[in-house]
Automatic annotation (TrEMBL):
<dbReference type="InterPro" id="IPR029044">
    <property type="entry name" value="Nucleotide-diphossugar_trans"/>
</dbReference>
<keyword id="KW-0460">Magnesium</keyword>
<feature type="domain" description="MobA-like NTP transferase">
    <location>
        <begin position="344"/>
        <end position="503"/>
    </location>
</feature>
<dbReference type="Pfam" id="PF12804">
    <property type="entry name" value="NTP_transf_3"/>
</dbReference>
<protein>
    <submittedName>
        <fullName>NTP transferase domain-containing protein</fullName>
    </submittedName>
</protein>
<dbReference type="GO" id="GO:0016740">
    <property type="term" value="F:transferase activity"/>
</dbReference>
<dbReference type="InterPro" id="IPR025877">
    <property type="entry name" value="MobA-like_NTP_Trfase"/>
</dbReference>
<dbReference type="InterPro" id="IPR036425">
    <property type="entry name" value="MoaB/Mog-like_dom_sf"/>
</dbReference>
<keyword id="KW-0808">Transferase</keyword>
<dbReference type="InterPro" id="IPR012184">
    <property type="entry name" value="Bifunc_Mopterin-bd"/>
</dbReference>
Amino acid sequence: MKFGPIPIEAAEGAVLAHATTAGERRFRKAHRLSAEDVSVLKAAGVTQVVAAVLAPDDLGEDAAAQEIAESMAFRGIDVRPAATGRVNLHASSAGIFTVNAAMIDAVNAVDPAITIATLAQHAPVEKGQMVATVKIIPFAVSSALVDAVTKICAGGEIFAANAYQPVRVGVIQTVLPGIKPSVLDKTLRVTEARLARSGGKLTAERRTPHEIAPVAEAAASLARDNDMVVIFGASAMSDFADVVPAAIEMAGGTVIRAGMPVDPGNLLVLGTLDGKRVIGAPGCARSPKENGFDWVLDRLIAGLDVTARDIAGMGVGGLLMEIPTRPQPREPLPAKSQLKVGIVLLAAGRSSRMGGPNKLLALFDGKPLVRRTAERALGSKASGTIVVTGHQRERVHAALAGLDVAFADNPDFTDGLSTSLKAGIAYLPEDAAGVMIVLGDMPGVASADLDGLIDAFRKTGGNSVVRASHDGKRGNPVLLPRSLFPAIAHLEGDTGARHLVEAEGLDVIDVEIGAGASVDVDTREALEGAGGVLQD
């Protein structure tokens, strides 16, 4: 391939290096010039162009990239069509990415014109996420170079997206005097959330004394009916002969590795029992934050073996504290500014303190309060609004006629607030990063206030609880991250989001929105004082 300025008379078949304008015609970069194109350019006074002239044995950038991609052996990956000298490859399902680094290095050593970039070894991937890209840097490349690369690619599997499997997991939690049941309950919820993200299921739990024999008995029992057993010790492992590793051996199993060079996660134990994997979880695994337990659990659920040598090799990159998630090349994950937040508007209550009338149907400036609230939700940056109905559902539906909201009917609304939370969140789309719980009886909350909460949530990357406040006092609405959705599924009775915020230990950001955060209209006096008119 020759590259540089070319007289326009000799430019037929050349590939433009830069976009070029001829009168009203514009030829894009990488456009191959035809005889007609040359005539148009000459008529416009163009005397030369900067272009690439392909030799007979050259392949164009798209053809070369496509041929290389088609020569690769891989699993669980979809190939996108070539464009601008690039072929992107995407995971066909969620899982763990594996790559033959020696093959990638060999390909990239052939010639700088041909490149392959991939995610890191054992990176977790989502369905549709880009995992690798083949890029031809110049406009064309010698077919001999492409042949050299395809010969390397014929040597075996170059990479794979190993899909998560729907494994069944049994959990053991040991108990010592003073350990709170709430800590054990939270551990279950966090573990369920970890398994849910990869398709696994927590099937059973055993709570035992923190002693070798009862833990061994529980492990043997759970291993018979599950694919994996996870043990949470009430006390951290302090010796390689401590309760958890000793219990695995007493049950007839083998300890593969006790301790790992990942922080947090140092005190993990990995073993086998009756052909099933047993993980002694480190204490940090009671938190939803990433730790060494995630590395081992996710690989096992993806069907990958984890050996003592594998764990010993996790030290480089194993310091997880304060390490941000890196964006993927060329096709990043959704930016923080694009994180989707759904609104669940609670409108199922009986207004019992009103003595009969439904406060949500009270008129404010001639409009039902519930409609006023829904319109403000729809006017915000939220991706959608779900209205939970129960008491007088037909009247509430009628008051919201014509609005672009979804309805989630809650037939169990008399059982308490938790039932409405669960009913609304069940309607959220899978790509919702969080949910804002909006009470239907807060006339002072405006669309701009809701936007302020959403903006604060997005700035944290969707990992914090965001709460409206007034003069330093917490109020409503409250925005909850997706990581709390499994915990919401366990709520009972008249328990709401405040309980979760206090129990789950997530970061909480208070956003001052003014008096509207604390003005609700539970009583006739409060409603009339806020400017409302009750309707029978």
